[in-house]
Amino acid sequence: CMGKAIPTVEGWHSQHMVFSMDFSAWNCFDVEEKAEARGELKAFLAELESMHQAKEGSYAFYDVNGYKGDLLLWILAPSLEDLAKWERKFRRLTIASVLVQTYSYTSVTEVSAYVKAKLDTPEVDAKLYPTVPKDKYICFYNMTKKREGNDNWYMLPPEERGRMMREHGITGRPYLEVLSEYTTGGVGLDDWEWGVTIFSNDDIQFKKIVYDMRFEEASARYGIFSDFYVGTLIDEACFDEVFA
Ligand code: 76R
Question: Active-site residue 182, yes or no?
Protein backbone atom coordinates (compact mmCIF):
# COMPACT_ATOMS: atom_id res chain seq x y z
CA CYS A 1 0.00 0.00 0.00
CA MET A 2 1.25 3.47 -0.86
CA GLY A 3 0.70 6.78 0.88
CA LYS A 4 -1.56 7.44 3.83
CA ALA A 5 -4.19 4.76 3.31
CA ILE A 6 -4.16 1.92 5.82
CA PRO A 7 -3.38 -1.40 4.07
CA THR A 8 -6.45 -3.52 3.35
CA VAL A 9 -6.88 -7.04 2.04
CA GLU A 10 -9.85 -8.07 -0.05
CA GLY A 11 -11.62 -11.39 -0.49
CA TRP A 12 -14.89 -12.28 -2.19
CA HIS A 13 -16.97 -9.82 -4.16
CA SER A 14 -20.30 -8.93 -2.67
CA GLN A 15 -23.70 -8.03 -4.08
CA HIS A 16 -26.56 -6.91 -1.86
CA MET A 17 -29.92 -6.72 -3.65
CA VAL A 18 -33.27 -5.58 -2.30
CA PHE A 19 -36.47 -6.34 -4.19
CA SER A 20 -40.06 -5.21 -3.84
CA MET A 21 -42.75 -7.63 -4.87
CA ASP A 22 -45.65 -6.52 -7.06
CA PHE A 23 -48.38 -8.47 -5.27
CA SER A 24 -51.11 -7.54 -7.73
CA ALA A 25 -48.98 -9.05 -10.53
CA TRP A 26 -48.10 -12.09 -8.39
CA ASN A 27 -51.75 -12.68 -7.62
CA CYS A 28 -52.50 -12.90 -11.35
CA PHE A 29 -50.56 -16.18 -11.31
CA ASP A 30 -52.81 -19.20 -10.83
CA VAL A 31 -52.09 -21.90 -8.27
CA GLU A 32 -49.94 -24.00 -10.64
CA GLU A 33 -48.01 -21.00 -11.95
CA LYS A 34 -47.20 -19.93 -8.41
CA ALA A 35 -46.09 -23.46 -7.50
CA GLU A 36 -43.85 -23.55 -10.57
CA ALA A 37 -42.33 -20.15 -9.76
CA ARG A 38 -41.67 -21.30 -6.17
CA GLY A 39 -40.00 -24.47 -7.50
CA GLU A 40 -37.70 -22.47 -9.78
CA LEU A 41 -36.74 -20.14 -6.95
CA LYS A 42 -36.03 -23.12 -4.68
CA ALA A 43 -33.77 -24.64 -7.33
CA PHE A 44 -31.92 -21.31 -7.63
CA LEU A 45 -31.46 -21.19 -3.84
CA ALA A 46 -30.24 -24.79 -3.88
CA GLU A 47 -27.52 -23.76 -6.35
CA LEU A 48 -26.45 -20.93 -4.04
CA GLU A 49 -26.49 -23.42 -1.17
CA SER A 50 -24.10 -25.77 -3.02
CA MET A 51 -21.71 -22.87 -3.67
CA HIS A 52 -21.95 -22.03 0.05
CA GLN A 53 -21.38 -25.68 1.10
CA ALA A 54 -18.38 -25.92 -1.23
CA LYS A 55 -17.02 -22.72 0.39
CA GLU A 56 -16.70 -21.13 -3.03
CA GLY A 57 -18.98 -18.28 -1.99
CA SER A 58 -21.89 -17.61 0.31
CA TYR A 59 -25.35 -16.02 0.40
CA ALA A 60 -28.24 -14.82 2.50
CA PHE A 61 -31.95 -14.61 1.62
CA TYR A 62 -34.25 -12.64 3.95
CA ASP A 63 -37.81 -11.32 4.13
CA VAL A 64 -37.50 -7.52 4.55
CA ASN A 65 -39.75 -5.54 6.88
CA GLY A 66 -41.44 -2.35 5.73
CA TYR A 67 -41.83 -0.38 2.52
CA LYS A 68 -38.13 -0.42 1.52
CA GLY A 69 -38.48 -3.86 0.06
CA ASP A 70 -39.74 -7.39 0.49
CA LEU A 71 -36.67 -9.53 -0.19
CA LEU A 72 -32.97 -9.10 0.51
CA LEU A 73 -30.55 -11.32 -1.38
CA TRP A 74 -26.86 -11.11 -0.50
CA ILE A 75 -24.41 -13.04 -2.67
CA LEU A 76 -20.67 -13.43 -2.12
CA ALA A 77 -18.60 -14.90 -4.94
CA PRO A 78 -15.01 -14.68 -6.16
CA SER A 79 -15.41 -12.11 -8.94
CA LEU A 80 -17.68 -9.41 -10.35
CA GLU A 81 -18.45 -11.63 -13.32
CA ASP A 82 -19.51 -14.45 -10.97
CA LEU A 83 -21.91 -12.02 -9.31
CA ALA A 84 -23.20 -10.90 -12.72
CA LYS A 85 -23.80 -14.56 -13.59
CA TRP A 86 -25.90 -15.03 -10.42
CA GLU A 87 -27.80 -11.81 -11.15
CA ARG A 88 -28.62 -13.05 -14.65
CA LYS A 89 -29.78 -16.41 -13.31
CA PHE A 90 -31.98 -14.66 -10.79
CA ARG A 91 -33.61 -12.26 -13.24
CA ARG A 92 -34.48 -15.16 -15.57
CA LEU A 93 -36.60 -16.78 -12.87
CA THR A 94 -40.34 -16.49 -13.35
CA ILE A 95 -40.72 -14.81 -9.98
CA ALA A 96 -38.31 -12.04 -11.04
CA SER A 97 -41.00 -10.77 -13.41
CA VAL A 98 -42.99 -9.61 -10.36
CA LEU A 99 -39.97 -8.19 -8.49
CA VAL A 100 -38.58 -4.68 -8.75
CA GLN A 101 -35.07 -4.10 -7.47
CA THR A 102 -35.20 -1.13 -5.08
CA TYR A 103 -31.63 -1.12 -3.77
CA SER A 104 -28.27 -2.68 -4.47
CA TYR A 105 -24.72 -2.43 -3.22
CA THR A 106 -21.64 -3.82 -4.97
CA SER A 107 -18.52 -4.22 -2.87
CA VAL A 108 -15.82 -6.63 -1.73
CA THR A 109 -15.08 -8.18 1.66
CA GLU A 110 -12.38 -6.18 3.39
CA VAL A 111 -10.15 -6.31 6.43
CA SER A 112 -7.97 -3.35 7.26
CA ALA A 113 -4.75 -3.26 9.24
CA TYR A 114 -5.90 -0.58 11.72
CA VAL A 115 -5.79 -3.04 14.59
CA LYS A 116 -4.13 -6.20 13.37
CA ALA A 117 -0.79 -5.77 11.67
CA LYS A 118 -0.92 -9.37 10.39
CA LEU A 119 -3.47 -9.93 7.67
CA ASP A 120 -2.81 -13.59 6.89
CA THR A 121 -4.49 -15.28 9.85
CA PRO A 122 -7.47 -17.69 10.04
CA GLU A 123 -9.62 -14.94 11.65
CA VAL A 124 -8.93 -12.63 8.73
CA ASP A 125 -9.73 -15.45 6.28
CA ALA A 126 -13.07 -15.97 8.03
CA LYS A 127 -13.89 -12.30 7.34
CA LEU A 128 -12.72 -12.37 3.73
CA TYR A 129 -14.31 -15.70 2.80
CA PRO A 130 -17.24 -15.83 5.23
CA THR A 131 -19.54 -18.77 5.79
CA VAL A 132 -22.57 -16.55 6.27
CA PRO A 133 -24.67 -17.88 9.18
CA LYS A 134 -28.35 -18.71 8.76
CA ASP A 135 -29.32 -16.64 11.78
CA LYS A 136 -32.94 -15.65 12.18
CA TYR A 137 -32.38 -11.93 11.49
CA ILE A 138 -30.32 -9.69 9.23
CA CYS A 139 -29.49 -5.98 9.43
CA PHE A 140 -27.83 -4.30 6.46
CA TYR A 141 -26.83 -0.69 5.86
CA ASN A 142 -24.12 1.43 4.32
CA MET A 143 -21.70 3.82 5.88
CA THR A 144 -19.40 6.55 4.59
CA LYS A 145 -16.86 8.59 6.52
CA LYS A 146 -17.48 12.34 6.47
CA ARG A 147 -15.37 14.80 4.47
CA GLU A 148 -16.79 18.14 5.58
CA GLY A 149 -14.94 21.18 6.90
CA ASN A 150 -13.14 20.24 10.10
CA ASP A 151 -14.76 16.81 10.17
CA ASN A 152 -12.76 15.20 7.40
CA TRP A 153 -11.78 11.60 8.15
CA TYR A 154 -9.44 11.55 5.17
CA MET A 155 -7.41 14.53 6.39
CA LEU A 156 -6.68 12.93 9.78
CA PRO A 157 -3.23 11.56 10.56
CA PRO A 158 -3.10 7.72 10.51
CA GLU A 159 -2.46 7.57 14.29
CA GLU A 160 -5.72 9.44 14.95
CA ARG A 161 -7.69 7.11 12.69
CA GLY A 162 -5.93 4.14 14.31
CA ARG A 163 -6.91 5.34 17.78
CA MET A 164 -10.58 5.67 16.77
CA MET A 165 -10.66 2.33 14.99
CA ARG A 166 -9.13 0.61 18.03
CA GLU A 167 -11.88 2.18 20.15
CA HIS A 168 -14.37 0.90 17.56
CA GLY A 169 -12.95 -2.64 17.79
CA ILE A 170 -13.16 -2.55 21.60
CA THR A 171 -16.84 -1.58 21.45
CA GLY A 172 -17.55 -4.24 18.84
CA ARG A 173 -15.69 -7.27 20.12
CA PRO A 174 -18.04 -8.28 23.02
CA TYR A 175 -20.94 -8.36 20.55
CA LEU A 176 -19.36 -11.26 18.67
CA GLU A 177 -20.94 -13.49 21.35
CA VAL A 178 -24.42 -12.58 20.09
CA LEU A 179 -24.01 -11.53 16.45
CA SER A 180 -21.78 -11.80 13.37
CA GLU A 181 -20.70 -8.69 11.49
CA TYR A 182 -19.22 -8.41 7.99
CA THR A 183 -17.73 -5.23 6.57
CA THR A 184 -17.51 -4.93 2.80
CA GLY A 185 -15.73 -2.08 1.07
CA GLY A 186 -17.27 -0.28 -1.87
CA VAL A 187 -14.80 2.56 -2.52
CA GLY A 188 -14.42 2.78 -6.29
CA LEU A 189 -17.12 0.13 -6.79
CA ASP A 190 -20.28 1.77 -5.51
CA ASP A 191 -21.61 4.98 -3.99
CA TRP A 192 -21.15 4.19 -0.31
CA GLU A 193 -17.76 3.47 1.22
CA TRP A 194 -18.80 0.43 3.27
CA GLY A 195 -21.54 -2.09 3.68
CA VAL A 196 -22.28 -3.39 7.17
CA THR A 197 -24.12 -6.71 7.34
CA ILE A 198 -25.03 -8.10 10.74
CA PHE A 199 -26.70 -11.41 11.61
CA SER A 200 -28.20 -12.45 14.94
CA ASN A 201 -30.88 -14.66 16.42
CA ASP A 202 -31.92 -11.66 18.55
CA ASP A 203 -32.78 -8.55 16.53
CA ILE A 204 -32.49 -6.37 19.65
CA GLN A 205 -28.72 -6.87 19.42
CA PHE A 206 -28.77 -4.76 16.20
CA LYS A 207 -30.32 -1.91 18.16
CA LYS A 208 -27.81 -2.33 20.98
CA ILE A 209 -24.64 -2.43 18.88
CA VAL A 210 -25.65 0.41 16.55
CA TYR A 211 -26.67 2.59 19.52
CA ASP A 212 -23.45 1.74 21.36
CA MET A 213 -21.40 2.68 18.29
CA ARG A 214 -23.19 6.00 17.82
CA PHE A 215 -21.16 7.26 20.81
CA GLU A 216 -17.81 6.36 19.27
CA GLU A 217 -15.95 9.28 17.78
CA ALA A 218 -15.57 7.41 14.47
CA SER A 219 -19.38 7.28 14.21
CA ALA A 220 -20.53 10.35 16.20
CA ARG A 221 -18.23 12.70 14.32
CA TYR A 222 -17.52 10.97 11.01
CA GLY A 223 -20.29 8.47 10.32
CA ILE A 224 -22.87 8.96 7.57
CA PHE A 225 -25.43 6.18 7.15
CA SER A 226 -27.75 4.90 4.44
CA ASP A 227 -31.22 3.52 4.97
CA PHE A 228 -31.31 0.47 7.21
CA TYR A 229 -32.76 -2.84 6.03
CA VAL A 230 -33.87 -5.50 8.51
CA GLY A 231 -35.44 -8.84 7.81
CA THR A 232 -36.15 -12.41 8.83
CA LEU A 233 -34.57 -15.55 7.39
CA ILE A 234 -36.52 -17.26 4.63
CA ASP A 235 -36.04 -20.93 5.49
CA GLU A 236 -37.84 -24.15 4.53
CA ALA A 237 -40.39 -23.59 7.30
CA CYS A 238 -41.65 -20.20 6.06
CA PHE A 239 -40.82 -20.35 2.33
CA ASP A 240 -44.32 -21.34 1.16
CA GLU A 241 -45.90 -18.74 3.44
CA VAL A 242 -43.63 -15.93 2.17
CA PHE A 243 -44.36 -16.90 -1.45
CA ALA A 244 -48.04 -17.82 -1.00
O1 76R B 1 -10.47 -5.68 16.10
C2 76R B 1 -10.15 -5.99 14.93
O3 76R B 1 -9.28 -6.78 14.65
C4 76R B 1 -10.89 -5.39 13.80
C5 76R B 1 -11.22 -3.98 14.11
C6 76R B 1 -12.26 -3.45 13.21
C7 76R B 1 -12.10 -2.69 12.05
C8 76R B 1 -10.81 -2.24 11.37
C9 76R B 1 -13.69 -3.57 13.42
C10 76R B 1 -14.25 -4.29 14.47
N11 76R B 1 -14.37 -2.90 12.44
C12 76R B 1 -13.44 -2.34 11.58
C13 76R B 1 -13.71 -1.56 10.46
MN14 76R B 1 -16.36 -2.54 12.39
N15 76R B 1 -18.36 -2.22 12.36
C16 76R B 1 -18.97 -1.20 11.69
C17 76R B 1 -20.34 -1.11 12.10
O18 76R B 1 -23.24 1.55 13.06
C19 76R B 1 -22.06 1.94 13.17
O20 76R B 1 -21.75 2.95 13.85
C21 76R B 1 -20.93 1.20 12.48
C22 76R B 1 -21.32 -0.04 11.69
C23 76R B 1 -20.55 -2.15 13.00
C24 76R B 1 -21.84 -2.51 13.68
C25 76R B 1 -19.29 -2.82 13.17
C26 76R B 1 -19.07 -3.91 14.01
N27 76R B 1 -16.11 -1.24 10.86
C28 76R B 1 -14.95 -1.02 10.18
C29 76R B 1 -15.20 -0.08 9.10
C30 76R B 1 -14.19 0.42 8.10
C31 76R B 1 -13.69 1.76 8.63
C32 76R B 1 -12.46 2.32 7.99
O33 76R B 1 -11.67 1.56 7.41
O34 76R B 1 -12.31 3.56 8.08
C35 76R B 1 -16.53 0.27 9.21
C36 76R B 1 -17.30 1.23 8.32
C37 76R B 1 -17.08 -0.46 10.30
C38 76R B 1 -18.39 -0.35 10.75
N39 76R B 1 -16.61 -3.86 13.97
C40 76R B 1 -15.61 -4.52 14.64
C41 76R B 1 -17.82 -4.36 14.40
C42 76R B 1 -17.57 -5.38 15.37
C43 76R B 1 -18.67 -6.20 16.04
C44 76R B 1 -16.20 -5.45 15.55
C45 76R B 1 -15.39 -6.29 16.54
C46 76R B 1 -15.22 -7.66 16.15
C47 76R B 1 -14.38 -7.93 14.95
O48 76R B 1 -13.14 -7.73 15.00
O49 76R B 1 -14.95 -8.39 13.96
Answer: no
